[in-house]
Amino acid sequence: MLDEAEIRMHARRFMAGLDLSLIAQDLSVYTKKVQAKLRKEELEPGESGYTLTKRDGSSVIIVNERERLERQRFSICHEVAHIVLELKSDHRDTPSWSYAKRDENEIACDIFAAELLMPLDAFKRDADQEPPSFQLVERLRGQYVVSFAACASRLAAVSDYPCAFVTMNARVIRHASRSKALRDLRAWIVPKSPIPQGSVAQRLVRDEEWSGEDDAVPQDVWFQDWPKGYDLIELAKHYPSYEETFSLLWFEQDSGPDEPVNNFAGVPAEQDDGGLRELDGHLSFSKRR
Description:
alpha+beta, Arc Repressor Mutant, subunit A, 2 domains, three-stranded mixed β-sheet, 32% helix
């Protein structure tokens, strides 16, 4: 079994030594490494792509030419991930746009694909130019030719701010990407829990609104077993027709706790117990047989 950190390290080892200077225009540097040819076809609505593997070990990656360019690019890298990680595909009854409903194998390949599309060093250098915001996400997604959700998740993961990007359906939290600064504070967002009462996201779902912002959300609304007294910024988007909800959360650099929080007692801890894993989540899957 591989966790999220191991998946990211697999991707970085795969990218090592490759010329990544043109990946915003051309992803052939990745397809060539896995001996795959790329073909674009008109596929059924909701089908983003798949891979055909030949007996000689080479592959053909087919992506849906009807979909937006950023979706096609993500599908290419997602299929490369299936080849590298040797994971079975499971797209049954799952819309390609719905991250919140993804199978674990598919989420693993999504994580790998994000690494290929937004290489760590370059993306972090660009992301560090200004504080987190949806405007920054929009600028970076255009620069790297990726979706809003993929870019926002990546931004939260690499930001120097205590920051998180939360993916939800209309009812529960599905995934949270947290920055190292937020993990070091032991801020934990419980997966599969209801969207928190008092959050901007919950208000948008309740009122069927599309977007909202609040710069004074009590942090204990989002973080489990935290003390009161700190406010964070929450930007949220809700797409009722897709049952998708996103929140970008962060503290200004000097507005959060100064030391890790003891999540059980709800008070700051004097010493760290070794910290959390580098990345959230634990994705388990079986290799293709």
